């Protein structure tokens, strides 16, 4: 599992505070954006809360996921140190979480501060992986001066602040002047190995611009415990060493320079800055060996036991001035980056001399060997690394196959070396994004599941729609077939009932005209009637496919029925009676025509077959039904069939009505047609 990079920042001695003046020369646009993001965070913390994605669309969620992946590719990685080194500070241990513990750092003088960084101690959990150990659940950051001895709370957190779990540094933005800063916890978290409660931190950094003004400053704590030996001391809170290596995640890595020398020699490396600069700080990156697990050599390999760093304006160092003296007293005095500040001194040449080189003995050799080397040497004038790309010259150092140019190329084994504060911003930002990523993944999974279910519903709806369309097509085809059949039936009925009746009437009139050949006046009237029926038959023939277009047919149903009686039943005694004529006028034209043709067909059948001498006709229209009854005194319907004539049944079917045939007691036939007018009424 990966973990944070080195957060170390060793400053110059505390009696020589210095100000960082400008950003690193190689600060990229992305790095600058990260710093701006840090400065625009909330007043309490620069760790962003999880965003509200409830109302985001699926495309917005996918775009956000892609943006997170792109940004993570540009941020520094979590990479844990290995080997032996200082861990940080651990307070007294308690059985309850509600305990008050504090850590106070004394600054040299009232100093403007704009950022405080708390680096957690890291524990390897067998289930959850790496996580913070003993990081407080509820605490305040208080800053004060001699004029304000009680201090001012500049940030406060509780168990609902969502800052845990974490292994990344916690960055807290502020803008104040302080001569001391205190971290005061009131609710502790359990340490991992026994579940008891304590306060643990790996490092506290307090920044004024790019300067860690807390480096190597005095520390006091509420706990009486302070070990004289081991990896946990309160002084280790401000030694600049963290559990991380600087792994910028970008740029091409280079192998550290390593030179061989004799045990009694005092080798050195001189760097020509090519111009005069006011220097105030040097950062020595120790040789990287974290490419193997376990680490193949001890921490601080090739780092001399004592170092003398001098500056000069002359190449022969005739005017040499001591900038820094460094001595490591134990394995806990070594970290990935050793930063030393000094009073501003104008120099062109800087010489790093090993007063006591690093000495070791290989397992298969009897003699001791000595080495001196660094992954990078950064020499600062303000915020600028003026040693970048400059020439380094070794003295009393033999080559070991490592390039001397790697001392000043701006890279370590993992790639580009970032400014300390920029690096902290990226680690904090990575923490925020990696916390957001599973939350976003959960939202996307939920949306995809919902989308999948909706897709299944859509598929089923599509299938149902296709089946429905097929069913509708089938119904429509069936309806059209029935409609065609209905048209054919109506066409046949119209031809039979209208043209057949007219032709039969013409035939009867023709027979009568023969008998009246000697009566010119009566013959003339019969011929006129024959002429009228001939014209009517011609009109009906033209419009038999749609009798609604025939002009003058059944515009007045009552009058048409009376006229037909006079023409067809001229030699038969008949009576006709109507009731509800107003309702008959409100019927659709097609219905009036069908009733008339049914009526007319009945008269023709009486005339043809019944030999009746008397006919009675009743047409009654009510809002509930229309009933047409035709009774004759003829010899009645053929007893062999006993059914309504087919032509009448067909016309009744077109009317969607009911037709019956009866034999009255007095003899003859009674045909009754009943229809429901509600289906056919319209307002004219």
Please characterize this protein's 3D structure.
- By secondary structure, this protein is of the alpha+beta class.
- The protein folds into three domains: about 1-250 and about 420-470, Sandwich (Jelly Rolls), CATH 2.60.120.260; about 255-415, Galactose-binding domain-like (Jelly Rolls); about 555-684, Histidine kinase-like ATPase, C-terminal domain (Heat Shock Protein 90), CATH 3.30.565.
- The chain is built from eight helices and 31 strands.
- The strands form eight sheets. Strands 2, 5, 6, 7, 11, 12 and 13 form a seven-stranded antiparallel β-sheet that branches. Strands 15, 16, 17, 18, 21, 22 and 23 form a seven-stranded antiparallel β-sheet that branches. It has a five-stranded mixed β-sheet with strand order 27-28-29-31-30.
- Helix 2 (about 60-75) runs antiparallel to helix 3 (about 420-515) and helix 7 packs antiparallel against helix 8.
- The longest helix is centred in the last third of the chain and has 96 residues, at about 420-515.
- The radius of gyration is 55 Å and the shape is rod-shaped.
């Amino acid at each position: 599992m990966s973990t944070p990079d080195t957060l170390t920042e060793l400053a110059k001695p505390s009696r020589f505070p210095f100000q960082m003046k400008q950003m690193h020369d190689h600060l990229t646009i992305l790095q600058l954006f990260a710093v701006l993001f840090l400065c625009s965070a909330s007043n309490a913390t620069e760790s962003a809360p999880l965003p509200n994605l409830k109302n985001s669309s699926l495309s917005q969620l996918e775009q956000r996921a892609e943006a997170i992946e792109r940004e993570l590719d540009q941020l520094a990685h979590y990479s844990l140190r290995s080997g032996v080194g200082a861990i940080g500070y651990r307070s007294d241990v308690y059985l309850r979480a509600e305990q008050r513990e504090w850590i106070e750092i004394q600054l040299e003088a009232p100093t403007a501060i704009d950022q405080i960084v708390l680096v957690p101690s890291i524990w390897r959990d067998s289930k959850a992986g790496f996580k913070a150990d003993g990081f407080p659940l509820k605490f305040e950051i208080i800053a004060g001066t001699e004029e304000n001895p009680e201090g001012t709370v500049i940030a406060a957190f509780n168990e609902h602040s969502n800052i845990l779990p974490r292994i990344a540094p916690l960055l807290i933005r502020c803008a104040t002047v302080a001569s001391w800063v205190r971290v005061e916890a009131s609710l502790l978290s359990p340490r991992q190995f026994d579940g008891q409660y304590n306060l643990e931190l790996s490092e506290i950094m307090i920044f004024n611009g790019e300067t860690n003004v807390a480096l190597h400053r005095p520390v006091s704590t509420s706990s009486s415990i302070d070990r004289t030996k081991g990896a946990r001391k309160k002084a280790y809170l401000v030694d600049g060493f963290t559990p991380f290596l600087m792994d910028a995640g970008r740029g091409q890595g280079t192998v550290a320079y390593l030179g061989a020398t004799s045990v009694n020699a005092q080798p050195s490396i001189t760097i020509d800055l090519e111009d005069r600069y006011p220097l105030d700080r040097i950062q020595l990156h120790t040789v990287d060996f974290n490419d193997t697990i376990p680490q193949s050599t001890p921490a601080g390999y090739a780092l001399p036991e004592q170092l003398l760093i001098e500056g000069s304006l002359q190449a022969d160092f005739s005017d040499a001035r001591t900038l820094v003296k460094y001595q490591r007293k134990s394995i806990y005095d070594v970290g990935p980056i050793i930063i030393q500040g000094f009073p501003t001194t104008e120099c062109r040449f800087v010489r790093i001399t090993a007063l006591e080189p690093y000495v070791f003995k290989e397992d298969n050799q009897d003699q001791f060997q000595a080495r001196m080397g660094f992954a990078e040497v950064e020499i600062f004038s303000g915020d600028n690394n003026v040693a970048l790309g400059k020439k380094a010259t070794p003295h009393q150092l033999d080559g070991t196959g490592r390039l001397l140019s790697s001392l000043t190329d701006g890279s370590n084994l993992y790639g580009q070396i970032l400014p300390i504060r920029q690096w902290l911003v990226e680690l904090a930002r990575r923490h925020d994004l990696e916390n957001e990523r599973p939350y976003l993944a959960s939202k996307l999974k939920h949306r995809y599941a919902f989308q999948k279910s909706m897709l299944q519903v859509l598929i089923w709806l599509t299938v149902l729609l296709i089946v429905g369309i097929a069913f509708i097509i089938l119904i429509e085809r069936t309806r059209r077939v029935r409609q065609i059949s209905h048209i054919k039936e109506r066409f046949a009925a119209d031809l039979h009932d209208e043209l057949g009746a007219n032709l039969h009437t013409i035939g009867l009139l023709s027979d009568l005209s023969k008998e009246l050949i000697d009566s010119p006046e009566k013959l003339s009237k019969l011929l006129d009637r024959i002429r009228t029926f001939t014209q009517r038959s011609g009109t009906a023939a033209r419009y038999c496919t749609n009798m609604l277009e025939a002009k003058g047919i059944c515009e007045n149903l009552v009058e048409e029925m009376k006229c037909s009686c006079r023409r067809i039943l001229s030699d038969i005694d008949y009576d006709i009676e109507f009731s509800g004529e107003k309702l008959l006028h409100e019927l659709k034209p097609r219905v009036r025509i069908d009733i008339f043709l049914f009526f007319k067909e009945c008269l023709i059948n009486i005339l043809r077959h019944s030999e009746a001498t008397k006919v009675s006709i009743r047409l009654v229209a009510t809002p509930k039904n229309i009933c047409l009854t035709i009774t004759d005194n003829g010899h009645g319907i053929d007893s062999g069939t006993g059914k309504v004539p087919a032509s009448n049944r067909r016309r009744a079917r077109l009317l969607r009505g009911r037709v019956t045939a009866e034999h009255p007691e007095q003899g003859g036939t009674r045909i009754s047609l009943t229809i429901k007018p509600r289906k056919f009424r319209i307002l004219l």
